[in-house]
Inverse folding.
């Protein structure tokens, strides 16, 4: 009965990025533009890879999935944020908050795992080029892809199920612009030991192991590149993984800023800025990073634009 007396609240309040209506109007415009750029930019990447048969390789297979995940992850958060900016109503239903937690954890976890799969692909291409075609087969890519989605789902589902077991009493204001798992757990009036334990284990595995895998891959890649005698060969090898390395730095740099820096060294405002970086800015920047630094992608995008303009005529 005591658990039932902690009545489940029907909604949470997302305090968002600003309390001033004038600022919210500006933020609505900024985030709407960023969201459109993210969706259209990543959609162009997917379509460009689709129509150019020369890009039907493991590296671009993973890039296609990364673009799809970026569209999905931002669509989990930004549309609700835009609605709140317009309506002035910052409430989100309990069930909607749980759904947002699940899908956001799923897609962010996928981002992390896909990045390590891409690092392994670059490792095989540069460090073991003679074995690349036999190891990175379409079947292996699909298996890696399936494992990424499965683990991401298991991780997100575990956190969400444990979150629904908590009781919430009275206080329902979340100091964020979306239902962040840690922020929601703070509001619980029941014991959160298991939740925090799972965050530190499964959550740590989902973020830490891929990061270590990426680090090991690039140590081997840099060692292999340094053994190349010609400067042109070195530049060519580095250029194939430069875009991926920039995305990794953006993604993990902002996550470390939010979740792994000492609480005494940052404020809630800094946490929000870091969260915006990895939830909104990084997915928006990915199409530019991969297209501006990649001649194959530039060619494919030109083909796509020519085809679209020809159809419009």
């Amino acid at each position: 009965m005591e658990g039932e007396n902690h009545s489940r609240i029907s909604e949470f309040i997302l305090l968002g990025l600003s309390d001033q209506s004038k600022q919210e109007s500006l933020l609505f415009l900024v985030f709407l533009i960023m969201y459109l750029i993210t969706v259209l930019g990543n959609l162009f990447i997917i379509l460009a890879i689709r129509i150019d048969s020369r890009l039907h390789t493991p590296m671009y297979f993973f890039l296609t999935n990364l673009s799809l995940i970026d569209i999905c992850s931002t669509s989990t958060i930004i549309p609700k944020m835009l609605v709140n900016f317009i309506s002035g109503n910052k409430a989100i239903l309990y069930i909607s908050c749980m759904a947002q937690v699940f899908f956001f954890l799923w897609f962010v976890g996928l981002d992390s795992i896909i990045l390590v799969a891409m690092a392994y692909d670059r490792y095989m291409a540069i460090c073991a080029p003679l074995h690349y075609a036999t190891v990175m087969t379409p079947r292996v890519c699909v298996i890696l892809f399936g494992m990424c989605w499965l683990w991401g789902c298991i991780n997100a589902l575990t956190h969400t199920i444990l979150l629904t077991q908590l009781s919430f009493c009275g206080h329902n204001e979340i100091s964020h612009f979306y239902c962040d798992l840690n922020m929601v757990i703070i509001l619980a009036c029941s014991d959160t030991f298991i939740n925090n334990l799972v965050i530190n284990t499964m959550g740590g595995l989902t973020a830490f192991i891929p990061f270590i895998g990426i680090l090991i891959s690039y140590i081997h890649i840099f060692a292999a590149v340094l053994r190349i005698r010609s400067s042109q060969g070195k530049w060519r090898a580095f250029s194939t993984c430069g875009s991926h390395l920039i995305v990794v730095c953006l993604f993990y740099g902002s996550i470390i800023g939010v979740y792994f820096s000492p609480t005494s060294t940052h404020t809630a405002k800094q946490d929000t800025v870091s969260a915006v970086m990895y939830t909104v800015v990084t997915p928006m920047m990915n199409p530019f990073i991969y297209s501006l630094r990649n001649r194959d992608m530039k060619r494919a995008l030109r083909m796509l634009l020519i085809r679209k303009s020809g159809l419009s005529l």
